Amino acid sequence: MFSHFSVALALLSPLVMGTPLRRAMQVHEALQSTPSGYTLTGAASPDTVLSLRVALVQNNIDGLIEALYDVSTPSSSNYGKWLSKSDVEAYTAPESETVDAVNSWLSENGLNATVLTPAGDWLGIDVPVSKANEILATDFSVFTSSVTGATTIRTLSYSLPSNLIGHVALVHPTITFPNPSGIKPPIAREVSTPAASASDLSDPCAIVKLNGTAMTPACLQELYGIPATPATVASNGLAVAEYEYEYAEESDLHTFLQTYRPDVNPNTNFTVLSIDNGTNPQSPDDAGLEASLDLQYTVGIATNVNTTFITVGYNGDFLTNLLDTANTLIALDSPPQVVSTSYGEDEQYVSASFATTLCNAYAQLGARGVSLIFSSGDGGVSGNHFEECTTFNPTFPSVCPHITTVGATTLIPEVAVDFSGGGFSNIFPRPSYQDAAVSAYLTLLGSNDTGLYNASGRGYPDVSAQGVDFEVVNAGEVLQVSGTSCSAPTFASVVALLNDRLLASGKPTLGFLNPFLYSTGASAFNDITSGNNTACGTNGTLGFFTAPGWDPVSGLGTPDFAKLLTAVGL
């Protein structure tokens, strides 16, 4: 359960055991068939207890999103006037009639609920399969991944009493399945001799220019003009979110700083925020490659910015972990102004209702001035990682229009790397802020790839950054790591340093970035016009190519810090 809000719902009346009322049921969400990669094993044990989340319909989510775009658009008179926590809750708190309807339903069925958010728009219930089947008119079953052999309990459809339609947005997890391949780590390889010697050269990017390997903080600073001077504003924060038992070792960070940032205090540390009983054990055996990468390249680039390591305990459902992370941050009075996440899921495994509801949670954070940065995935157009596909598979949350998604480049001069995830959502329509940029690309694309993607969907990534052979210290060893997992913390660090300059000048932080990026900020990026992310079809020949301006491989391009300073008015 979501540990921060374990009190009972105040508006729920005391439960009275009795015979549930018989109500007309209406199918609420359904899949046409078992998702690819899964086989139906059999009925779930009736005694198995399910932890279900019930999303109540928010009273004015459209108003919240309108407010989000108003405060995030540079041409608006309200630009940068971020909403308060209570302002956001006023948009998201369910109407009293919604609470009453859900109260009645739970009471009739003898169920207790836990409030999961300050606004009361998410509830948690623990219910045995037999009862869940009854109240949702469904059949929860065991499904087995044909890739990993892991099992999960889900259903292909569920229903709600007709009087709850318009009051309950969804019940989760029901028809949203985990990725059958699991969440894969970034690509890594050992290096026999640490190439950190590049930092001793007059050109910190010398080795990268020579053979494309050994990316270091010094090279990123040189390449993008990122300052090495320490940040000065104590209230400025940057966080990295970690899942799937990924832990960051303080000793590895200290070694990394001594090696790659000798100008920084080697004892620089980080704050830990636990969600879903997440831990961060300090043992070389527990060192996680993803965690090491994310933490070392935020602390190592965003000099002196207060950094938080968000450790999320794995509960068997990555998407629930994502939801709990969002809701925890929403509940904070002062969440970190930048949050970087290098994890994602194939959109095809996520129900449209869940994707929309979680994306709206990100809108709440954006409206409060938080920049949410996500990697775009490492499978080109094939999904989260290179896999066979006959149509392009976008990734989630990368496709959410209320976050900023980062693709990957390589080499110097830069080209888009082939694993850079990008494309168009099949759930979210194209947001207005990218209409001009995406339309221009589609005109150049013409009839190529017709039928393989949704031309009216939200395009991603938004921007990109280097993503190949980042030097990382993991369990005391130097490894080179590749993936958009490298790109996201790099770009997040740039945003955190811009925020520091803005706050020091008495200005608001950047918050939700995209309306700025696609307007006044667009000229502050290095346009990437070489490379592709082809990964589908015979021998992976189908996909997108880069082009002048925005493209679904490298986005708007890679950051130029000096130009970004000018674009934000500094």
From TrEMBL:
Catalytic residues, chain numbering: 290, 294, 485
Peptidase S53 domain ranges (all copies): 214-570
PROSITE patterns: SEDOLISIN
Record: residues binding Ca(2+): 527-528, 549, 551
Cross-referenced InterPro entries: Peptidase_S8/S53_dom, Peptidase_S8/S53_dom_sf, S53_propep, Sedolisin_dom, Tripeptidyl-peptidase_I
UniProt GO MF annotations: metal ion binding; serine-type endopeptidase activity; tripeptidyl-peptidase activity
Any one GO BP annotation for this protein: proteolysis
Reactions it catalyzes: Release of an N-terminal tripeptide from a polypeptide
Enzyme Commission (EC) number: 3.4.14.10
Cofactor note: Binds 1 Ca(2+) ion per subunit.
Keywords from the UniProt entry: Calcium, Glycoprotein, Hydrolase, Metal-binding, Protease, Secreted, Serine protease, Signal, Virulence, Zymogen
Compartment annotation: Secreted, Extracellular space
N-terminal signal peptide: 1-18
GO CC terms in record: extracellular region
Main localization (coarse): secreted
Cofactor: Ca(2+)
Functional note: Secreted tripeptidyl-peptidase which degrades proteins at acidic pHs and is involved in virulence.
Name of the protein: tripeptidyl-peptidase II
Organism ancestry: Eukaryota, Fungi, Dikarya, Basidiomycota, Agaricomycotina
